[in-house]
Amino acid sequence: MARSESVAPRSRMREFRMSGPAGGATLRHRRETGARVAYPNWLAGYSGNWLARLLARRGRRHGPRWSAVIDELLAWLSEREGPLGYLVLAAASAIEYIVPPLPGDTVTLFGTFLAATAGYSVALVYLTLTGGSIAGSLAAWGFGRYLGRHEAGWPGFLQREGTRRGIHRIIDGFERHGGLYLAINRFLPAVRSLFFVAAGMADMPAWRVVVFGGLSAAAWNLLILGVGYSVGNNWQRLESLSRDYTYASLAVAGVVALGIAVRWWLTRRRER
Questions:
Q1: What residue numbers bound the domain in which 183 lies?
Q2: Is residue 75 situated within a structural domain?
Q3: Residue 17 β-bridge partners
Q4: For 174, which of 5, 147, 218, 256 is 20 to 30 Å away at the CA?
Q5: Residue 26 forms beta bridges with which residues?
Q6: DSSP assignment of 226-245, as one string?
Q7: What total number of domains does the chain contain?
Q8: What is the pLDDT of residues 168-227, one digit of tens each?
């Protein structure tokens, strides 16, 4: 009897269904039976399928132990609507800016999921994610500020003449239009933290980083939370929407990068 009570979820936790080979088994059932399931498809979300593939490889390599860790993490957060749960969300949101490959939008999606199914406050999730984004962006800005003030210590590949000129052009651009760049940074996948590194190298004041970066994060998180909460538990639909947006934004960024490269090439050609 004591054993059954120890594995029962807290009353505030709502059971949820997740896709995978377990045939829609609930998280509580998987925890009680030790059933091994695939990493949730929706969690790949905005970062594409690379995270799901990575976790799948780790799951095959480490066996049920890895799947158990993931399930326990999901259950742990779902059962802890409180200061510690919000703190974990804030830390995960901040880490995206410190370790860029980590999927920040996935954290936002997971916060939406917790608000929709585990009793988390939508307002507190929103404030937590936005605050974490601001903290992480300030860390990236501080790193850029350090690089800008210690140019002599840059690695060799950054000391090349062409590379240095390119970096200084970016810095000049941030000195002129840094606020605008930070205001749109959150809507561009994969390269967000680099905006704040460049802002630090351009010696942009911290208050401007907080204001413009915070506005961008606030608008983006509001959009994702609104869309995610309206979709509810239909993670396949949410994943499809997020994937389409990611592809479209990457295409736009690619066109812009190509235009900049062509302009640079034409300028170099005229200088010769």
A1: 81-271
A2: no
A3: 26
A4: 218
A5: 17
A6: HHHHHHTT-HHHHHHHHHHH
A7: 1
A8: 888 888 888 888 889 988 877 667 788 898 899 899 999 999 999 999 999 988 888 887
